[in-house]
Amino acid sequence: MAEIAKLERQQVNQAAVLRRKAEEAAAANNRLKELLQKQKAVTEKKVKKQEQADTSTVGARIRVSLSLCV
Predict the structure, then answer these.
(1) DSSP SS3 for 19
(2) Buried b / exposed e across 19-51, counting CB within 10 Å, b at 16+?
(3) pLDDT tens per residue, range 34-69
(4) How many domains does the chain have?
(5) How many CA atoms lie within 13 A of 68 on its CB side?
(6) What does the pLDDT read at residue 47?
(7) Does an H or E element contain 70, and which?
């Protein structure tokens, strides 16, 4: 009887450890996903800002060219 109780306690402890590790892994995965989303958003923002700068530069060149033709 004591052996069965000991085995049951070990099983309960092991289940608790596995549950905790699974929760920690899930939390780590969520943090990684959030970081990747933030990184992607920052990258897209930089690209968009760079494209706007390039477009404004092209527009400025066109305006200068048109003003020279007149």
Answers:
(1) helix
(2) eeeeeeeeeeeeeeeeeeeeeeeeeeeeeeeee
(3) 999 999 999 999 888 777 766 567 777 777 677 777
(4) 1
(5) 6
(6) 83
(7) none
Reading the block at residue 33, the tokens are 């996903």
Amino acid at 16: A
Report the C-alpha gap between 63 and 55 in whole angstroms: 12
Which pLDDT value is given to residue 52? 72
Residues 6-33 have a mean pLDDT of 98
What's 1's DSSP letter? -
DSSP, collapsed to helix, strand or coil, labels residue 12 as helix
Domain that holds residue 23: 1-70
Q: Give just the sign of the alpha carbon dihedral 55, 60, 63, 69.
A: negative
pLDDT, residue 70, reads 59
